[in-house]
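task queued by scheduler; priority normal; single chain, no ligands, no partner chains; default sampling; output format set to structure tokens
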Amino acid sequence: MNRKAPYRWASPGDLNAFFGLSIDNLAVLVLTVSLLATVFGYPAQFALSHLVPGTAVGVVVGDLIFTWMAFRLARRTGRSDITAMPLGLDTPSTFGMVFFVIGPAFAEAVAGGMDQEAAARRAWHIGMCSIVASGVFKMACAFVAGPVRRLVPRAALLGSLTAIALALITFLPLLEIFASPLAGLVALGIILASLTAHVPFPFKIPGALAALVVGGLIQFAGQRAGWIPDVGHMAIDPAAALWPTEWLAAFRCEWLEAWPYTVKYLPVVIPFALATVVGGIDCTESAAAAGDEYDTGQVIGVEAIATVIAGACGGVIQTTPYIGHPAYKAMGGRAAYTLMTAAFIGLAGLTGTFAYLYQILPGPALVPILVFVGLEITAQSFHATPQRHYPAVALACVPALAALAKIETDKVMAAGAHPDALLARELFSLQIISAGFIVTSVLWAGMLTALLDRRLPRAAGWCLAAAAFTACGVIHSPFKDGRLFLPWAIGELPAEAAGRGPLELAMAYGLLAALYIAWSVIQPATPLPDATDEHH
């Protein structure tokens, strides 16, 4: 009689896995507060007491449920080596929420005459509504994940994710790294060698921890010696952030009043949520390939529940399963690493001790982990996309590059620059390409994927979808605040929109759709076979 082996839920490999997962989450939290404070002037103290605790709650809930699911799977299969699904804060949507939702909402409220705290509260409420909307959308997708995945080409879904990974997750941390390259480049080098190239760090020290310690020591020694300027984060009082209770105001549900202000941000928010659904499916498949068969619908359902709870508690970043399950399994991780991550992030966020970590941890030594995440997402996207669809993935990156350029040019404009007429037209081109860029990435990549498969009628369908979204401002909005509109009530357009307003752009997509339909009739093309299994 064969007896089932007892589940070894904790192993030495859990320590390596814990440092990798927890430092990743910690870096996202630090970056969220830091970018909001430095780029938009968002009050850091308000962010620490209102945004961080609820965001941490989402990680706690998700990782605890995934820990329980690992125990359940071990009990059902009788195996002792089950690895829990890793869950954490979604890095791509962190940049999306900071640069395209919370930051702009705060700036708009300040420009409308609100004081700093009232504007911060308005932006916080909009962020909460956005996260709850993401969670509800993901919950619906948990039941139809298969059809959604079949309807939208993988190059379109993963291409938009690649765009964020390269243009924002990989590039923007480099600005922080090169602000203090002595510490930043060394830490980045350790990350690239240990995590990207899988070269073990000496003495079996986890690569993420080694990068943080070595980079932090160089930063500290350099500042003490005077060869590294002490720039640091925006000044805060960490003692005042201990045991925060301000986030409990979320339970008064006043944030529900911000729904009308949130609608215009949904074209940014929902595609990020869809990307995490696709990512959840891929994560489940990669876990199955590594030997751990989790239910896909349940995995997506858990991330949806954790996201909704985070938003309702004041969180502003959605949670998602991380793509590294096979890597954590290879490290020897079981279930203790997700349990420890839940405890660590929960304690830091809910006790307010995260404020001390935020103040102490040097950004140049912390953010290289995000470069690794960006590179990993990019590599996974190409690996999971058929080779002939690679041009579609590359095209999907272009709107994100426009968004990146707009982020930097907006800083120059805010500093008082006055462009001449020609430059103003070029800047407006950046505006309309970058507006709703996630949706644009999906649509453009979907269209090109259909063309690469020689399915012109399907490409025409993508063009018609782009025309409809353009006519309502979901993509290519001519307004700086990215607001939506009805085609018959667009409002007054800026002078730079002459000849390229929403109706003209929608007409261009419509003409292209008609051309593809006529083309397919006059010169029929034989569709290529399904490229699902074609990789290299």
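post-processing summary
- Residues 464 and 510 are 6 Å apart (CA to CA).
- The mean pLDDT is 90.
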